[in-house]
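Researcher: Last one for today. Full complex below.
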Amino acid sequence: MPTEREIELFKLKAEMCKTFSDYKRLLIINQLRYGEKQVGELADILKLPQAIVSRQLALLRNKGVVTPRREGINVFYRLTDEKIIEACDLVHEVLLNRLAKNREQADRYL
Amino acid sequence: MPTEREIELFKLKAEMCKTFSDYKRLLIINQLRYGEKQVGELADILKLPQAIVSRQLALLRNKGVVTPRREGINVFYRLTDEKIIEACDLVHEVLLNRLAKNREQADRYL
DNA sequence: CTCCATATATATAAATAAATATATATACAA
DNA sequence: TTGTATATATATTTATTTATATATATGGAG
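Model: Here's the assembly. Have a good evening.
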């Protein structure tokens, strides 16, 4: 049985993972892979309304996933920790493995 | 701008990440770190009702995160891919970094 | 300094999805 | 058929997403 403290940590982890549970946020994170980008720039690239991008960035920001930097009228966002990309890439691999397995399974019925 | 196919992949990734966005499911995943466990065993260890554990396992199973193995009356669950643990550990590190930063920040105001 | 334009953030309401508790169903072995 | 382990259904509560509108922050012109 986990201790209270462990449970608290798992709750924090769950909250961080929750920020990865929306594809638009994953798209945003992916855009920040190679460096910082402005809010409007993200909205343009992803063809999403500014308010949506800003809202999602706020969520990511509150959970410490991204960090803003204001430069005059613009705000640049970057990933707070590069390990976030590593984690996303691992999930990508797991997903591909799973899809490959499904494919195999499907093939057996052809 | 991402392609339709890319967006589909990100949606699948988001769905998988969504399974990590609940602390009970993270507790379950953590229990499976070193090998398979039965449903009732998990319920006992985590002090959760059987129906809840079974339901959460069903979610994880549907997204390919865990795999069941029936042995008579019992069902053993294991992680489908060990990379899941690596990903969770990365999130753990990111979280610790973040907490450390907050601590630093807090210290500056003491 | 005031007014305006631009970039970003937030508030709110409506729609949608998820979690929980409780009850019930299924699967298997004796 | 009975007991044990696991799974599912449903209703209720609670949280999340989206769209729309509005607010704030900053820099520049006059």
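The longest strand of chain B covers residues 66-71. Chain B has one domain: 4-80.
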